[in-house]
Fold this sequence. Notes:
alpha+beta, HU Protein, Chain A, three-stranded antiparallel sheet, two-stranded antiparallel sheet, 3 helices, elongated
Amino acid sequence: MKKAEFVKEVAQKAGLSKKDTEAAIDAMVETMSNALASGDSVSFIGFGTFAVTQRAARKAKVPGTTRVVDVPATKAVRFKVGKQLKEAVAK
């Protein structure tokens, strides 16, 4: 589902205009991004939790060669699925 389709669905279910719905979704995404960038987690009970994790530095082989490269440590966003979402998807 693309953003435009998502906005349309949410607008219909919430009884809002597409413009207001898109503004709300954009604000939500920006707020979540800022929270994750500052190291906080974002949790929606029943849906899941977004959190920042640290990936350790490692060595990796380049496919098709015998060359080994160093991959630096980095941060990544992790999503842990909530119980209600897990059950809804399993049906």
